[in-house]
Design brief:
Blueprint (H helix, E strand, L loop, with lengths): L3 H10 L7 H12 L1 H29 L13 H24 L3 H8 L2 H8 L3 H19 L4 H14 L1
Helix pairs in contact: 3-4, 3-7, 4-5, 4-8, 7-8
The protein binds phycocyanobilin.
Protein backbone atom coordinates (compact mmCIF):
# COMPACT_ATOMS: atom_id res chain seq x y z
CA UNK A 1 0.00 0.00 0.00
CA UNK A 2 1.32 3.41 -0.97
CA UNK A 3 0.80 6.98 0.18
CA UNK A 4 1.82 10.30 -1.30
CA UNK A 5 5.22 10.21 0.39
CA UNK A 6 6.23 6.57 0.02
CA UNK A 7 5.23 6.51 -3.65
CA UNK A 8 7.42 9.54 -4.34
CA UNK A 9 10.35 8.12 -2.40
CA UNK A 10 9.96 4.86 -4.30
CA UNK A 11 9.98 6.60 -7.65
CA UNK A 12 13.04 8.75 -6.87
CA UNK A 13 14.97 6.00 -5.11
CA UNK A 14 14.50 3.60 -8.00
CA UNK A 15 16.57 5.95 -10.16
CA UNK A 16 18.88 7.08 -7.35
CA UNK A 17 17.78 10.71 -7.58
CA UNK A 18 17.38 13.38 -4.93
CA UNK A 19 13.96 15.02 -4.85
CA UNK A 20 13.77 17.64 -7.57
CA UNK A 21 11.47 20.63 -7.86
CA UNK A 22 8.56 18.52 -9.15
CA UNK A 23 8.86 16.19 -6.17
CA UNK A 24 9.04 19.11 -3.75
CA UNK A 25 5.97 20.69 -5.35
CA UNK A 26 4.06 17.42 -5.03
CA UNK A 27 5.09 17.08 -1.38
CA UNK A 28 4.22 20.71 -0.61
CA UNK A 29 0.77 20.36 -2.06
CA UNK A 30 0.21 17.15 -0.07
CA UNK A 31 1.25 18.84 3.18
CA UNK A 32 -0.68 22.00 2.34
CA UNK A 33 -3.91 19.98 2.16
CA UNK A 34 -2.95 17.72 5.08
CA UNK A 35 -5.22 19.21 7.75
CA UNK A 36 -8.09 19.48 5.31
CA UNK A 37 -7.66 15.81 4.34
CA UNK A 38 -7.82 14.77 7.98
CA UNK A 39 -10.86 16.95 8.62
CA UNK A 40 -12.64 15.54 5.56
CA UNK A 41 -11.84 11.96 6.50
CA UNK A 42 -13.04 12.52 10.02
CA UNK A 43 -16.28 14.18 8.82
CA UNK A 44 -16.90 11.18 6.56
CA UNK A 45 -16.27 8.78 9.43
CA UNK A 46 -18.68 10.63 11.71
CA UNK A 47 -21.41 10.65 9.06
CA UNK A 48 -20.78 7.40 7.24
CA UNK A 49 -24.08 5.68 8.02
CA UNK A 50 -26.17 8.65 6.98
CA UNK A 51 -24.10 9.29 3.83
CA UNK A 52 -24.59 5.69 2.72
CA UNK A 53 -28.30 5.76 3.51
CA UNK A 54 -28.78 8.99 1.58
CA UNK A 55 -26.73 7.78 -1.38
CA UNK A 56 -28.80 4.60 -1.52
CA UNK A 57 -32.12 6.49 -1.39
CA UNK A 58 -31.02 8.86 -4.09
CA UNK A 59 -29.71 6.08 -6.32
CA UNK A 60 -32.92 4.06 -6.02
CA UNK A 61 -34.94 7.21 -6.67
CA UNK A 62 -32.87 7.96 -9.79
CA UNK A 63 -32.88 4.35 -11.04
CA UNK A 64 -36.06 2.82 -9.55
CA UNK A 65 -35.81 -0.31 -11.72
CA UNK A 66 -32.92 -1.50 -9.53
CA UNK A 67 -35.30 -2.34 -6.69
CA UNK A 68 -38.19 -3.66 -8.80
CA UNK A 69 -38.56 -7.37 -9.56
CA UNK A 70 -35.79 -8.28 -12.00
CA UNK A 71 -33.59 -5.39 -10.78
CA UNK A 72 -30.17 -6.25 -9.40
CA UNK A 73 -30.89 -4.69 -5.98
CA UNK A 74 -34.31 -6.40 -5.70
CA UNK A 75 -34.72 -8.63 -2.62
CA UNK A 76 -33.54 -7.61 0.80
CA UNK A 77 -30.30 -9.51 0.44
CA UNK A 78 -29.26 -7.70 -2.72
CA UNK A 79 -30.55 -4.35 -1.47
CA UNK A 80 -28.32 -4.80 1.58
CA UNK A 81 -25.36 -5.88 -0.60
CA UNK A 82 -25.72 -2.69 -2.59
CA UNK A 83 -25.69 -0.45 0.50
CA UNK A 84 -22.76 -2.44 1.83
CA UNK A 85 -20.86 -1.84 -1.42
CA UNK A 86 -21.56 1.91 -1.17
CA UNK A 87 -20.21 1.78 2.38
CA UNK A 88 -17.03 0.06 1.10
CA UNK A 89 -16.53 2.81 -1.49
CA UNK A 90 -16.98 5.51 1.12
CA UNK A 91 -14.71 3.92 3.71
CA UNK A 92 -11.89 3.25 1.27
CA UNK A 93 -12.23 6.79 -0.12
CA UNK A 94 -11.72 8.07 3.43
CA UNK A 95 -8.45 6.09 3.61
CA UNK A 96 -7.27 7.24 0.19
CA UNK A 97 -7.95 10.86 1.14
CA UNK A 98 -5.60 10.63 4.10
CA UNK A 99 -2.99 8.71 2.08
CA UNK A 100 -3.16 11.24 -0.76
CA UNK A 101 -2.84 8.21 -3.05
CA UNK A 102 -5.24 5.80 -4.73
CA UNK A 103 -3.16 2.68 -4.35
CA UNK A 104 -5.35 1.36 -1.52
CA UNK A 105 -8.31 1.53 -3.88
CA UNK A 106 -6.57 -0.62 -6.48
CA UNK A 107 -5.34 -3.09 -3.92
CA UNK A 108 -8.43 -3.51 -1.74
CA UNK A 109 -11.42 -2.45 -3.78
CA UNK A 110 -10.98 -2.50 -7.53
CA UNK A 111 -8.91 -5.61 -8.18
CA UNK A 112 -11.21 -8.13 -9.84
CA UNK A 113 -14.32 -6.13 -8.97
CA UNK A 114 -15.54 -5.57 -12.49
CA UNK A 115 -15.30 -9.31 -13.20
CA UNK A 116 -17.22 -10.11 -10.00
CA UNK A 117 -19.91 -7.57 -10.89
CA UNK A 118 -20.18 -8.89 -14.42
CA UNK A 119 -20.54 -12.46 -13.28
CA UNK A 120 -23.28 -11.51 -10.78
CA UNK A 121 -25.05 -9.15 -13.17
CA UNK A 122 -24.39 -6.12 -10.94
CA UNK A 123 -24.79 -3.19 -13.34
CA UNK A 124 -21.70 -0.97 -13.58
CA UNK A 125 -23.49 2.20 -14.76
CA UNK A 126 -25.70 2.58 -11.68
CA UNK A 127 -22.77 1.58 -9.43
CA UNK A 128 -20.74 4.43 -10.89
CA UNK A 129 -23.78 6.68 -10.37
CA UNK A 130 -23.82 5.64 -6.72
CA UNK A 131 -20.15 6.58 -6.29
CA UNK A 132 -20.82 9.95 -7.95
CA UNK A 133 -23.70 10.56 -5.53
CA UNK A 134 -21.39 9.73 -2.60
CA UNK A 135 -18.88 12.25 -3.94
CA UNK A 136 -21.51 15.00 -4.17
CA UNK A 137 -22.75 14.22 -0.64
CA UNK A 138 -19.16 14.43 0.64
CA UNK A 139 -18.66 17.78 -1.14
CA UNK A 140 -21.80 19.07 0.55
CA UNK A 141 -20.75 17.69 3.94
CA UNK A 142 -17.22 19.10 3.82
CA UNK A 143 -18.36 22.35 2.23
CA UNK A 144 -15.94 22.32 -0.67
CA UNK A 145 -15.40 20.55 -3.97
CA UNK A 146 -11.63 20.60 -4.33
CA UNK A 147 -9.94 18.17 -6.74
CA UNK A 148 -8.13 16.36 -3.93
CA UNK A 149 -11.47 15.72 -2.20
CA UNK A 150 -13.11 14.25 -5.29
CA UNK A 151 -10.00 12.34 -6.38
CA UNK A 152 -10.65 8.93 -4.76
CA UNK A 153 -14.25 8.89 -6.03
CA UNK A 154 -13.18 10.00 -9.51
CA UNK A 155 -10.54 7.29 -9.53
CA UNK A 156 -13.02 4.53 -8.67
CA UNK A 157 -15.46 5.87 -11.26
CA UNK A 158 -12.76 5.96 -13.93
CA UNK A 159 -11.45 2.50 -13.16
CA UNK A 160 -14.90 0.89 -13.07
CA UNK A 161 -16.29 2.64 -16.15
C1 LIG B 1 -22.23 -8.25 -4.63
N1 LIG B 1 -20.28 -6.79 -4.23
C2 LIG B 1 -20.89 -7.99 -4.39
C3 LIG B 1 -19.89 -9.02 -4.27
C4 LIG B 1 -18.69 -8.37 -4.03
C5 LIG B 1 -18.97 -6.97 -3.96
C6 LIG B 1 -17.34 -9.04 -3.87
C7 LIG B 1 -20.12 -10.51 -4.40
C8 LIG B 1 -20.09 -11.20 -3.06
C9 LIG B 1 -21.16 -10.70 -2.14
O1 LIG B 1 -22.35 -10.73 -2.50
O2 LIG B 1 -20.80 -10.22 -1.08
C10 LIG B 1 -18.09 -5.88 -3.71
N2 LIG B 1 -16.62 -6.82 -1.99
C11 LIG B 1 -17.02 -5.83 -2.84
C12 LIG B 1 -16.12 -4.73 -2.71
C13 LIG B 1 -15.17 -5.10 -1.78
C14 LIG B 1 -15.50 -6.42 -1.34
C15 LIG B 1 -16.20 -3.44 -3.43
C16 LIG B 1 -13.99 -4.28 -1.34
C17 LIG B 1 -13.94 -4.04 0.10
O3 LIG B 1 -14.87 -7.08 -0.48
N3 LIG B 1 -26.41 -3.77 -7.11
C18 LIG B 1 -27.06 -2.78 -7.75
C19 LIG B 1 -26.48 -1.46 -7.42
C20 LIG B 1 -25.21 -1.81 -6.67
C21 LIG B 1 -25.35 -3.28 -6.41
C22 LIG B 1 -26.20 -0.65 -8.66
C23 LIG B 1 -25.02 -0.96 -5.41
C24 LIG B 1 -24.42 0.39 -5.75
O4 LIG B 1 -28.04 -2.93 -8.49
C25 LIG B 1 -24.48 -3.99 -5.63
N4 LIG B 1 -23.14 -5.96 -5.12
C26 LIG B 1 -24.36 -5.41 -5.36
C27 LIG B 1 -25.33 -6.43 -5.25
C28 LIG B 1 -24.64 -7.63 -4.97
C29 LIG B 1 -23.27 -7.29 -4.90
C30 LIG B 1 -26.84 -6.30 -5.37
C31 LIG B 1 -25.23 -9.02 -4.80
C32 LIG B 1 -25.39 -9.65 -6.16
C33 LIG B 1 -25.88 -11.08 -6.08
O5 LIG B 1 -25.41 -11.84 -5.22
O6 LIG B 1 -26.73 -11.41 -6.88
Amino acid sequence: MQDAITSLIGAYDSTGKYFDRDAMDALKSYFATGNARLAASSAITANAASLVRKAGSQLFEDVPDLIRPGGNAYTTRRFAACLRDLDYYLRYASYALVAGNNDVLDERVLQGLRETYNSLGVPIGPTVQGIEILKQLVFALVGESADWLGAPFDYMIRELS
